[in-house]
Amino acid sequence: MPKLNVLIAGSTGYIGIQLIKLLIKHKNINIKYLCGNSSVGKNISSYDNSFRSKKLPRITKYNKKYLSYVDIIFTALPNGEAQIISKDLLKKNTLIDLAADFRLKKGSEYLKWYKQKHKALSNIKNSIYALPEITGKLVKKFSIIGCPGCYPTSILLPLVPLVKKRSINLKNIIIDSKSGYSGAGRGVHKKFKNKNLYESLSAYGVGFHRHNSEIQQELKNYTSSKINFTFTPHIIPMFRGILSTIYLDLKPGITLNKVQNILKKFHKKNKFVKVKSVNSFLSTNDVMNTNYCFISVCKTKFKDKIIILSAIDNLIKGGAGQAVQNMNLKFGYKISEGLL
Q1: Full-model pTM
Q2: Which of 35, 147, 150, 293 is the catalytic position?
Q3: What are phi and psi of 41, to 5 degrees?
Q4: Are 22 and 29 spatial neighbours (Cβ–Cβ below 8 Å)?
Q5: What DSSP element (H or E) covers 105?
Q6: CATH class, 4-148+318-331 region
Q7: CATH 3.40.50.720 region(s) of the chain?
Q8: Which one of 143, 232, 252, 334 counts the least CB within 10 Å of its CB?
Q9: Alpha helices per DSSP H over the chain
Q10: What burial class does residue 234 get, using C-beta atoms within 10 Å of its C-beta: 0-12 exposed, 13-18 middle, 19+ buried?
Q11: Is the pLDDT higher at 316 or at 182?
């Protein structure tokens, strides 16, 4: 089987670097172009020493002429830039976006949450919001794949099955998520320069974080009832990893063990989601440098309330790994290719 040629736009960011690490292990992929703006002409090894022994192209400025020579374009760019690239796609191209450009199904919602007009409205219909464990092989029908945000990945994997089975009260879902600082990109050091980033915990986006929009959109796919949830993210003094703590009220007749069984049944065939034993205390260390999501259902002092813990590596399962997983589904490769 001939290898597919790949272009990575935004190759020098944390997600871009992680994506390269996964794709160089993928037997069906050839990295043809690495694109960046501020680092043209440099070797990618200047961003990560582990690439020194690898044969990789020098960083070049993105040019739409490259699209003729590649099959897949991965975009890990500032919001809005993948939309521009999407307008130049050829029939043979698949765009896999790791930013937010094709996560929301309405241009009005994108404007509301991202404070900019969507530049490729007509391409939204050609795109799919693709959480691999939920959308599966549906990606085969689309030429533009929007990968979920890191926080929503950790939140939707446990919540979607429970909403589908009508097992939880939708009126008061509380989500507390904590992420390593790599989730905010390389600019995090400037953005949080007055926050003592490496020795303190910071709440941000309280009440109105952009990821609220995709959590709402995706959960609404599975219920006609109104959903009220409160989501608060935090940056903590470590490089990578997300732990989401989700507080839920159970519907009458639903027990902790029933919730456990719903999740285990739903994720039984999902290689990268592991529902751990009831009351397992999870750590981001459990999933660090992997494409796994670990989920634990925990009891509380109230019989009608539970706490769900969900742990992922934000750069892999919440980013580059998820993108590779979607690529594997799209092109019929083994689901774990490049990921184990």
Answers
A1: 0.95
A2: 150
A3: 95, -15
A4: no
A5: none
A6: alpha beta
A7: 4-148+318-331
A8: 252
A9: 14-23, 81-86, 107-114, 132-135, 150-164, 188-191, 211-219, 256-266, 321-331
A10: middle
A11: 316
Amino acid letter at 197? L
The residue-averaged pLDDT of 184-193 equals 69
Q: Confirm whether 147 is a catalytic residue.
A: no
Answer yes or no: are the C-beta atoms of 213 and 156 closer than 8 Å.
no
DSSP string, 182-219: GGG-TTHHHHTTTTTTTT--EE-STTT-THHHHHHHHH
pLDDT at 199: 85
Strand order in the sheet with 4-9: 59-60, 29-35, 4-9, 72-75, 94-97, 144-146, 127-129
CATH class of 151-314: alpha beta
Residue with the bigger pLDDT between 184 and 270: it is 270
Average pLDDT over residues 162-180: 97
Token code pair at residue 150: 């890191």
Return the SS3 of 308.
strand
User: Which band of pLDDT confidence, cut at 50, 70 and 90, is reported for residue 189?
Assistant: low
pLDDT for residue 37: 87
